[in-house]
Amino acid sequence: MSDGHQILNGIGVYAGTSHGRVAFVMPAPEADPDEGPCTDWEAGSAKIREAMQAVAEDLRNRRDLATDEKSKAVLAATAQLAADKGLIKSVDKKLKKGEGPTHAVCSAVEDYAVLLKKLGGYMAERVTDLHDVRDRTIARLRGLPAPGVPDIIEPVIIAAYDLAPAEAATLDPKLVMGILTEEGGPTSHTAILAAQLGIPCVVKISGLTEHVHDGGTVALDGGVGEVVVSPTETEIAELEERSRRRAAALAGSSGEGATRDGHHVALYANIGKEGDAERAAAFDLEGSGLFRTEFLFLGREEAPALEEQTDIYTAVLEAFGGRHVVVRTLDAGADKPLAFANQDKEENPALGIRGLRLGMRRTDLLDTQLQALANAYQKTHGDLWVMAPMVSTVDEAEWFAEKARGFGLPKVGVMVEVPAAAIRSSQILSEVDFCSIGTNDLAQYTMASDRLNGELAGLLSPWQPAVLRMIKFACEGGAATGKPVGVCGEAGGDPLMALVLTGLGVNSLSMAATKVNAVRAALHMHDLSTCQQMAAYALDARTAKDARAAVIALADPQLLDLL
User: Is residue 33 part of a domain?
Assistant: First the structure.
């Protein structure tokens, strides 16, 4: 490792600047190299089960200490993996073949990881969680310290080759000034959790573990994805000055989202649980543009009952008072399998029975959810809008609209996540009241690139002109039908991209609540015509890099302090 002055580049996933001492995450232990073959598989199995039970209990204790609902959900899901019966059975098979305990755990986990990766989507995201369970189990079996974040007693910047969501979920933003990882992507669980915690974060940093060491000093800029190793006093002063300018720019950010000349762009928060709603509602924003209800279903043996769903949806609507709330119906299927859905294994689940396609086959699940939403609406008379995920055709939009309206729901819409829906947006919007663009999936399907593959992060950028063209198609459909078009993907929380989206014709932006102030400030710096010019330049750009550069050239210089 080198501690000399270096400038490293990665992907900024949460804006902000900081500098300080680095604390490296404890590396994962390897299987015991001196371990002999298993001669008593039952004894080995009992030892491993005890270790995995201890890991599960530790994760549940971490869950109980977490204050954020999303963090609690991540820790609970990881604990569930540590108690997974299928994984334990796989370990037993390895032991019976003569593999030693730690080697059996490693090979069983890798077999399981292959299956999850093939499933794609949410289940592929669980591979990092699975590896975390493996590492903790091996550490217990070998009597070694648990891998992960060290005990922190003073402010530090956390660095790691990769950071398990279970670790990110328990970070204290009062002590963690930044997060740096060599792996990961902008839509990973860790990146999303960092944004929710308000911690500057840079991922996919080439050379991080080579050039940064534990106890060294770094400075980071989470907006542009830059990391300075062994920064000079001048560089630190420049970062601090930038932080002061950013604070000044954000100080006057309040009220409704609007361009400098008064063009309204509604600013909302993305939420996943009831607790998220309570926290987001405390921010100065106009409601929620995305309630990911799948978090209520995942990791359960049976679907939540009508009464439970009604209570949760009621609580969310009450948290926001009369403010706008957009609820996405169950976004699950082959890529986010449910134990109670009984879907057959698919060769390519990202292109399979997911979202509304599952809802159309399991109408019992969808009907219960829609009835619960209708009950919550009757109780609160809140500003409730309901939308279906993964809609591809006019027929699907019509089917969902008729069903949802049949339950008495006031506003019915669809997600635009596939090119087919963007291209045919005017026809689809003729059947519903609104649409919301999921930029993460739209980029994945437009660019034929797995959003979970960090090596393809460049292709998945919303700055890709082809992706922007798809967004433009959707906005043209909204203009033709007089229906509002929102964005609820991660792109909506980028202050620079927010200007382009506004120029393309997007009416609302939904993001992590912590990002609203910066986006609102960016809008206030520019008039609508400038946003439209930015959008035109970005659409005509040769590459994603060129598109972003063209927009920066047109932006108010003060905006750079918000990135």
Answer: no
Say how far apart CA 405 and CA 427 lie, in whole Å: 19
Interatomic CA distance for residues 356 and 349, integer angstroms: 14
Residues 432 and 532 reside in one and the same domain: yes
The model's pTM is 0.70
The dihedral over CA atoms of 395, 398, 402, 408, expressed in degrees to the nearest 10, equals 140
Final residue before a domain boundary, out of 142, 177, 207: 142
Beta-ladder partners of 26:
148
Does 234 lie in the same domain as 166? Answer: yes
Could you report the average pLDDT of every consecutive run of 10 residues in the chain (563 residues)?
Answer: 75 85 86 88 91 90 72 79 86 90 91 73 70 90 81 88 76 91 77 82 90 92 88 90 81 90 97 87 96 84 93 97 96 67 72 90 96 98 97 98 98 98 98 96 92 77 97 98 94 95 98 91 96 98 97 92 77
Q: How far apart are CA 468 and CA 142, in angstroms?
A: 51
> Domain check: are 111 and 178 in the same one?
no
Give whole-number Cα distances, 247 to 16, 240, 352, in Å.
10, 11, 46
Burial of 191 (0-12, 13-18, 19+ CB in 10 A): buried
The residues carrying an active-site annotation are 189, 488
Is residue 34 in a domain?
A: no
**Orientation angle between helical segments 101-119 and 121-142, nearest 10 degrees:** 170
Q: How many structural domains comprise the chain? A: 3
The reply to whether 82 and 227 lie within a common domain is no
The domain in which residue 12 lies consists of: 6-27+148-249
Q: Is 305 exposed, middle or buried (0-12, 13-18, 19+ CB in 10 A)?
A: exposed
For residue 179, give every residue at least 6 positions away whose Cβ sits within 8 Å of its Cβ, in sequence order, or none: 157, 158, 159, 163, 168, 171, 190, 194, 199, 200, 201, 202, 203
Distances (CA, A) of 111 to 32, 93, 104, 114, 138: 19, 12, 11, 5, 16
Do residues 290 and 424 both lie within one domain? yes
490 and 539 belong to one structural domain: yes
Q: Which helix (H) or strand (E) holds 159?
A: strand 156-160
Reduce the DSSP state of residue 375 to 3 states and report it. Answer: helix
Read off φ and ψ for residue 203, nearest 5 degrees: -120, 170
Domain of 187, CATH number, reads 3.50.30.10
Whole-angstrom CA distances from 410 to 237, 286, 369, 401, 471 are 53, 19, 15, 10, 26
Residue at 1 is within a domain: no
Q: At what angle do helices 528-540 and 495-504 cross, to 10 degrees?
A: 90
For the CA atoms of 32, 36, 41, 45, what is the dihedral angle to 10 degrees? -10
User: In the 8-state DSSP scheme, what is residue 1?
Assistant: -
Neighbours of 442 (CB within 10 A): 26
Which pair of tokens denotes residue 229? 């190793």
| Within a domain: 435 | yes
